[in-house]
Design a protein that fits this description.
It is built from eight helices and five strands. It has helices at about 5-15, 55-65, 75-90, 100-120, 135-140, 150-160, 185-200, 210-225, and strands spanning about 40-50, 70, 125-130, 165, 205. The longest helix has 18 residues, at about 185-200.
């Protein structure tokens, strides 16, 4: 595993309060990751977290709370859906999916992320994203595809994300036919995602294990503090 990820994960495991408390855990470290008013067409806000963190529930609630915002779907889901559809339509086609070969899958997800972000309307104002390129850093490291990480960081520097929302684990973890990870694997994935977002340099806002209404209020306050409440 990548040594930066190991160091970050060990630090969090020895300080478990970092996983639950609501707080801002990142800072803007580099002006290269910020965008000017002239360049900005929408405030891009990635939403992430590991399995069983309530990310999907939050996104659905945000669509109701902020109906004028733009929502970017999860890139990996798009790629998997497309690859499996191609397999069904073409006998002998080997789908490029994460459970068979992440080295083929990861670059497809990064490309899909860029395509989806390019489709954000110029008048969107605020765009909530179901994951982002930063997640690809985490999953590349988890899948031992470290050589792809520098290329993803290069793309992230051009993405100009405003800030990120990280959903913390909620309730008791239960594996399902869709969520196949063990509890330990789910936590490891979540920590890898947190570490990648911290390393990215963009501001990260923690969404703790609270009810959905409280999470919505945290998001609304974050938007208000940045003067974005008027454009969603």
């Amino acid at each position: 595993m990548h040594r930066v990820l190991v160091r970050c994960m060990l630090e969090k495991m020895h300080r478990p309060h970092l996983i639950r408390n609501p707080r801002i855990i990142g800072q803007i470290w580099s002006n290269s990751l910020a965008t000017t008013a002239e360049e900005s067409v929408a405030e891009k806000i990635p939403i992430s977290g590991g399995p069983h963190t309530g990310k999907t529930t939050l996104l659905e609630a945000l669509k109701v709370r902020f109906p004028n915002a733009y929502f970017v779907p999860e890139p990996a889901t798009n790629v998997i859906t497309r690859e499996l559809a191609t397999e069904q339509a073409n006998l002998g086609y080997v789908p490029r999916v994460p459970w068979t070969d992440y080295r083929e899958f990861g670059p497809l997800v990064a490309d899909e992320s860029e395509l989806l972000e390019a489709e954000i309307p110029s008048a969107a104002g605020v765009a909530f994203q179901d994951r982002s390129l930063i997640d690809t850093v985490a999953y590349s490291r988890l899948n031992r595809f470290d050589e792809f990480v520098p290329e993803v960081w290069r793309r992230i520097a051009l993405a100009h994300y405003s800030f990120a929302l990280i959903c913390q684990p909620v309730g008791t973890y239960t594996a399902t036919t869709v969520r196949r990870e063990t509890e330990d694997e789910a936590l490891r994935t979540h920590l890898a995602i947190e570490c990648a977002y911290q390393e990215s340099g963009i501001e990260v806002i923690d969404l703790p294990e609270v009810d959905i209404d409280t999470r919505l209020e945290i998001v609304a306050k974050a938007l208000e503090n940045r003067g974005l409440n008027m454009i969603v």
